[in-house]
Design goal:
Layout lengths: L3 E2 L1 E4 L4 H10 L3 E5 L13 H13 L3 E6 L7 H5 L4 H17 L4 E4 L10 E5 L5 E6 L26 H22 L2 E4 L20 H10 L6 E6 H20 L5 E5 L2 E3 L4 E5 L8 H10 L5 E3 L18 H4 L2 H16 L16
Parallel strand pairs: 1-13, 2-3, 3-4, 4-5, 5-8, 8-9, 9-10, 10-13
Antiparallel strand pairs: 6-7, 7-12, 11-12
Helix pairs in contact: 2-4, 4-5, 6-7
Length: about 350
């Protein structure tokens, strides 16, 4: 099949998004906490999941998966608060319903205060708008606090790293057997930013290649668990060496469910997002390494700089903001690399040797 490119991080399936996908020649899509799924009872129903899947099919797009249930469905699980068992029961329902609707992949994060940035309007190449994080400025709060997946309520108290690991194990123990039975894979997103100090009172635990390997061990080799390899977040951990380490561990084990293909300049404690090709790693080398490690799945473009005329960056979830010049640039860049390297399943496709 080859490595394929899918339209990802989409917040809503509408005519604008469908047209954008068609114009870019994409045949797959992944939706991110989609507004198309009401989930009013704390879980996604089979009927609404099937309806979304059918809408994608009618538009000529394969629904490659979903990522991130609403914060109101998941925050108590992440925090280990009273009420988490009810949320876990509802999450189990969502997983079973995904299987019944023919959707086999669900990404998740384990960040009680969600992703953090300290500046949402840094100037990148040529004046493009990008986001940034600097631990020295984190005491001022999360510049992404208004994003829809950031819980609106503060933590009841600090959450230590040990507590976070316990909360994650509790979640896996309850949900993985259900996912295995339903034929659904759960894909963990690394912690962004991958710092080793609490943010908003909660420790980040999936903050290094070793921590991600420890998460694999915690899943006990379940075929229903893997990672959403967010290259930008892993690059924040330690640049291209960190990216290579994670690919080399998870790739041969079949543990990479899909890839967020973005990059940053710098590593923790301070970094900024950027255009592909000007960050910490060589995108072509990373694609070759993924192929050599046995990855045969889909990539999405993830966060992109806001180019001239683009409405916004990470924080704007409208279809108009999503269908931007910055996103078209990132998708075109990746399409060109995949074709040039023969990794897109076309007539020039080749097998790359495993990384050493």
């Amino acid at each position: 099949m080859g490595i394929r490119l899918s339209m990802g991080h989409v917040e809503r399936l509408d005519d604008t998004v469908i047209t954008f996908a068609r114009q870019l020649g994409l045949r797959g899509i992944q939706l991110h906490a989609p507004a198309d799924l009401p989930g009013r009872d704390g879980y996604w129903t089979t009927a609404e999941l099937r309806a979304l899947n059918e809408r994608c099919e009618a538009a000529g797009l394969a629904l490659d998966g979903l990522e991130n249930v609403p914060a109101a469905h998941f925050s108590r699980i992440q925090r280990g608060e009273s009420g988490r068992d009810q949320q876990i029961e509802n999450y189990q329902r969502t997983v079973r319903n995904l299987g019944e609707a023919g959707i086999g992949l669900l990404g998740y994060n384990f960040l009680p205060t969600f992703v953090w940035r300290t500046d949402m309007s840094v100037t990148g190449r040529g004046g493009a708008g990008v986001t940034a994080f600097d631990l020295a400025d984190a005491a001022a709060g999360n510049a992404l606090a208004s994003y829809k997946l950031t819980p609106g309520d503060a933590l009841a108290g600090p959450i230590s790293a040990a507590q976070m690991w316990d909360n994650h194990r509790y979640f896996l123990d309850a949900v993985l057997p259900v996912a295995e039975e339903a034929g659904v894979r759960l894909a963990l997103h690394p912690d962004d930013p991958p710092v080793d100090v609490p943010l908003g009172g909660a420790c980040h635990i999936f903050n290094s290649p070793q921590a991600l390997a420890d998460a694999y061990l915690a899943a006990r080799g379940s075929p229903a668990w893997g990672i959403d390899l967010c290259l930008g977040t892993v690059s924040e951990m330690g640049g291209e060496p960190a990216v290579n380490e994670v690919i080399d561990f998870f790739g041969p084990r079949g543990g990479i469910c899909y890839v967020h293909f973005r990059d940053v300049q710098g590593v923790v404690p301070s970094f900024r997002e950027c255009f592909l090709g000007e960050g910490n790693y060589n995108p072509a080398a990373v694609l070759r390494r993924l192929a050599g490690a046995g990855f045969d799945g889909f990539l999405i473009d993830d966060h992109v700089p806001a180019m001239i005329g683009d409405p916004g960056t990470f924080g704007d979830t409208s279809s108009e903001a999503y269908c931007s010049r910055g996103r078209a640039h990132a998708i075109g860049y990746l399409q060109g690399l995949l074709r040039a390297l023969g990794l897109d399943g076309g007539p020039q496709a080749k097998a790359w040797p495993s990384p050493r």
